[in-house]
Structures are given as structure tokens and as C-alpha cells.
Amino acid sequence: MSENTENSSNPLDMLKWLVTIALLASVVAANHFLPELSVLYIAIIAVVAVGFAGFIASTTTKGSAFITFAKDSRTEVRKVVWPTRQETTTTTLIVLAATVVMALILWGLDGIIVEVVSFITGLGI
After folding, report:
1. Tens-of-pLDDT digits for all 125 residues of the chain?
2. I need a labelling partner for 54 at 20 to 30 A (CA). Which of 1, 21, 62, 96 fits?
3. HSE value, Cβ hemisphere, 13 Å, CA-based, for 101
4. Per the confidence metrics, is the pTM higher than 0.85?
5. CA distance 70 to 66
């Protein structure tokens, strides 16, 4: 079944991906080989080229699937009930307290184990 899904893409998708990669590579090349241009012009060229490359990539099968996934993800994030500031602060303080208590317990156990090993081996550490 997955083989059929992969093969059902548009034949022009490969060409679109190559154009997208070429546009992005040209932005990198322009930034490297044209240092005499103003930073503003290079930034404008980069924004336009990246936007155009994103548009071309979004017209492919995988690109449109990604856009659908992003829209669905945004919808799901809006459904999440986020904790209030007080709940977040309380939970953070509980986690910090538990961490401190566990650190003290482990420190105490480590000290006891070191003393027991020193007693058994006769080495004073």
C-alpha cells in the first residue's frame, strides 16, 4: 500500500524539488559571492527567493501534505487547555522541592556507602 502512495506523486515533483533546492543554493551563493552588495539587497533577495522556493515546494505532493499536517497541528494546539500561571508556578516549585529532596537522599546514601567501603577495605578516603 505504501508503494502505491509513493508512486502516485506528480511526475513534475522531482523537477519542482530541484528548482527549490537550486533557489535556496543560489541564495547561499549570492550571499557568499556578492559581498559588495548591500546587506539590505541581499536580505530582500533572500526573503523573496525563500518565499518563492516555499511556494514551489508547497505545490508538490509532499509539500501539500506538510501544509495539511501543519494546519491540523495548529487546530489541535488550539484545543489544548494550557495551565494558568499559578498552576505552572506551583508545579515548578513541587518539582524543584522533589529534586532537592532526592539530591539530599542520594548525597546521604553516597556518604554512607563511601564510609562502608572505607571500613571494609581499610582505606581512608
Report:
1. 444 555 556 788 899 999 999 999 999 998 888 888 888 888 898 999 999 999 999 999 999 999 999 999 999 999 999 899 999 999 999 999 999 999 999 999 999 999 999 999 887 66
2. 1
3. 6
4. no
5. 6
Provide the grid cell at 51.
518565499
Cell numbers at 94, concatenated = 513541587
| Cβ contact 57:63 at 8 Å | yes
Alpha helices (runs of H) in the chain, residue ranges in sequence order? 2-7, 13-33, 39-58, 61-79, 85-121
Residue 35 pLDDT: 81
DSSP symbol at 84 = P
| CA pair distance 39, 47, nearest whole angstrom | 12
CB 56 within 8 A of CB 19: yes
C-alpha Rg value of the chain to the nearest Å: 29
Neighbours of 4 (CB within 10 A): 7
